[in-house]
Amino acid sequence: MMRWPTLLRGWNGTDAGYDILLRFAPDIDAAYEAEHEAVRLRLVNRMVVFGLVMYNAYNLTAYVLAGDVFWHGLVMRLAVVTPLSFAMMMVLQRVNAIWRERILLVGMINAYLVPVFVLWSSRSQWALLLTNEMILMIVFATTLITLRFRHAIIYTAVVLGLTLAVIWTNPAIATTLIWPLTLQMILAAVFCLYANHHSERRRCEDYMRAYRAADRARTAENSERRMTMLSLTDALTGIPNRRSFEWMMSDWVAGHDAVGLMMIDIDHFKLYNDTMGHPAGDGCLRRVAATLSAVALGPHVQIARIGGEEFAVVMRGATSSGSKALATEIIREIRGMADPHPGRLDGVNRVTISIGLAVSSAADPFDRAVLMSDADAALYQAKRAGRDCWRFSEPAGPIVDLRQIA
Asked: How far apart are the C-alpha atoms of 355 and 95, rounded to whole Å?
């Protein structure tokens, strides 16, 4: 069994996106049907109604050309083919694309059986002129309904075989006319099949151009999105970087909600690097970032690494009490990491952090620079207080030293 990558080679050896039978690759076909199914159904419905009008109009010519079996043909057209065609239109709305096209193929062959039957059973000397109707029916199926090319091949082969069998077996058709009629039917079938192939191939090519253009646009958009994400993400820790932090601050401070900001610093991190080495320092930064990410959760809380061993937590809609509670939890979780820090000279011997906390007022005019300055000032207060604690920017705010918490 041939695989799609082999079949999808176009005439010039490049990847065409469709095979020799003008079938799209499965994923492309699904995309095509999603875009064109409704249009296809509307076209088929219009063509079936139009075709039935023309189809039944041929009852008038059959009355003259094959009067001996006229009533048989009339009943088959009006009582069988016409209601079945309307039933087919209803069924087509409820089946998938594969069965839609198969049902169309069966419907076209079914309609063709009536003129074949009339030609086969009539002994009128004029019956052979019914082949004109047959040719028009082939034209209708291949170029107006536009059966899919693979189905057009089946349809053309079946109806041509039936027609030639009748031409060669009907004694009412003069022997001298058999070969001319045979040649006419073959040429008509080949002509219609070629027209169908031309139309179907152009459909495939047009869609593939649009598909590839859309795919290039999606690829460019995804690349741009990835580049944007990379530009906003810290490569070492995987959390937002300073640029992302600046954007968040600009966006959130521009609103009317109070904004809380924590400036976080890993205590004595230079000594950690000097003692443990830079690879260990990178691991420490990643673990601190992971802990911050696990604690500072929620749509209104964002963390960022803003440089070196410095991190920030931004909180929208913050309150003083909620921000202090979060700062307390963060310090406790970092202490819970129990990462050794043998380079410290203060006897703590584990990784800790200091936090400076500030909260804006939703009621008062606010400047982002003020918030950052207040948080930085509070961070320095925490460092002067011995680290491993947080400080709030308000002078009257409570002082909490978690080193004294059991």
From this structure: 64
